[in-house]
Design brief:
By secondary structure, the chain is an all-alpha fold. It has three helices and no strands. The chain is flat and about 45 Å long.
């Protein structure tokens, strides 16, 4: 379930709002224990996703590093190489 959550910091170009939202959704799904909330829990689930996404965006924006930014293509190639092993 959480394999969809990827590192969002120190990439060129920076993480998009869609990537932040996707990570927040996966996090809330993992914590809640289900992928689709019931109608009774829908509002709480959506609010949690929104709050986690906002906190994630603030965190990523406030972090600093001296390392050179990574590229998504290079990370994808490394993941594929790991999978082949």
């Amino acid at each position: 379930m959480c394999r969809s959550i990827h590192t969002l910091f120190n990439f060129e170009p920076p993480a998009t709002a869609d990537e932040v939202d996707a990570a927040a959704l996966q996090y809330v799904r993992k914590i809640a224990g289900f992928t689709r909330p019931s109608r009774a829990n829908e509002a709480a689930f959506a609010q949690a996703v929104e709050e986690v996404a906002a906190a994630t965006a603030r965190l990523v924006a406030s972090l600093t590093t001296g390392a050179t930014p990574r590229t998504r293509e290079a990370e994808r190639a490394r993941a594929q190489a790991r999978a082949r092993r």
